[in-house]
Amino acid sequence: MPNDRETTRQTKILATIGPASSAEERIEELFNAGVDLFRLNFSHGTHEGHREVLERIRKVEARFNHPIGIVADLQGPKLRIGKFLTDSIELTRGQDFRFDSNPALGDKTRVNLPHPEVLDAMEIGSRIFLDDGKVRIEITEKGEGYLKGVVQSGSYLSNNKGFNIPGVILPIPALTEKDRVDLKAALDMDVDWIAQSFVQKPEDVLEAKELIQGRAALMAKIEKPSALVQLDDIIAHADGVMLARGDLGVEIPPENVPAVQKDVVRRVRDAGKPVVVATQMLESMIHNARPTRAEASDVATAVYDGADCVMLSAETATGEYPVRAVEMMDRIARKTEEDETYLDMMENARPDSHNTSSDAITTAAYYVAQDVDAKLIVNYTMSGSTALRTARQRPEVPILCLTPDLRVARRLALSYGVHAVHDEKGIEDFTGPARHAADIAVKKGFVQTGDRFIMTAGMPFGVAGSTNILRIAKVQ
Length: 476
What we know:
By secondary structure, this protein is an alpha/beta fold. 38% of the residues lie in helices and 22% in strands. It folds into three domains: 5-77 and 174-338, TIM Barrel (Alpha-Beta Barrel), CATH 3.20.20.60; 88-164, M1 Pyruvate Kinase, Domain 3; 357-474, Pyruvate kinase, C-terminal domain (Pyruvate Kinase, Chain: A, domain 1, 3-Layer(aba) Sandwich). The strands form four sheets. An eight-stranded parallel barrel has the order 1-2-3-12-13-14-15-16, surrounded by eight helices. A six-stranded mixed beta sheet has the order 6-5-9-8-7-11, with helices on one face. It is elongated.
């Protein structure tokens, strides 16, 4: 039986695996509820634990004969303060507070800040935001091995809380020693995507890609304001982008986040690469069976913006209602995609064609599909680039991607509207493939007898990046 998800939703869903969702039965439930990719968060857990989860996902993939993408999310450098003698302290607005290199336990007047590079980089007038921005302190004095500031907001601070320093580019590598070890382990597990945290500049991406050596696709996480300054260069080197609104939303004014989200999504889409909108999308569903209206609107806004994928974090990792959270996200995305306003927005934001024959063919396929009322666009592809170009157009009909490379099929699970099939048979001419594609499309539930579909491929067959043929076909 065709999966209803395959024929009615274009925006993809990425769900994080954790204690609430790591069992094979639960992974299958999440897949059936609409998950397209699973995220392994390397900030938590062990390599062996992640490997076991990955193997369970692959069992579900084999059982349903449906490529599932797996994203390994690296932790990146985590900035945290030290500990307090009493585990926590109370703060008063206007009081002085000191950060220093002294490893002694802190009190209500000071705490250890075990990051000398931060002590060096901060200047008088800089601000430090602690505990997701709940505590804000402005620096008023700087000396050898210490910073002194005034509490602007916040009343409570406890051990090892993380902190952000907006407006300051830190001389910290995006890949820590832990990340390098985790990266090697993830690649040995054969994950499909590596999500790189703390990207500040394009050189961070280039460093990671040099280590990856093509064994997985690289997703740059945009969570630092400094990354926005060189965003186009970061996009150019990455294979995809995740807008991680957690840390970013702490470091930039909240009123700027919606505009930044729209800008990032547009620029990544223009580049023909997939973009994920993440963090706190259905946050209340960690403990509640229904989301707030604001959260439902947040998910819908990401879909209206044209994101390839929306992500669930703690909702599925540790939440009480992981399957319901996926079902809710699925319903919101479908309903939004049915809205005429959404269709108008996708049309108005359609990027210009690049000056290549391959892009011209995929752009033409979009318009021809509209003109002949085609129910489907079929791409034969080796590298997946044809499917990415087609997804860039945000067509109203599904994109069936047939590829002989299972790794390509799994990576494309992230891309808008792409339903990848690992097709080992391949193609030898452009007559047989139409019948072959029609058979697969009928089995998947995309088309029925009499329907038209559009096909693109390249001559000579089997050569990556050579898309130069478009055909209108009919299901016989």
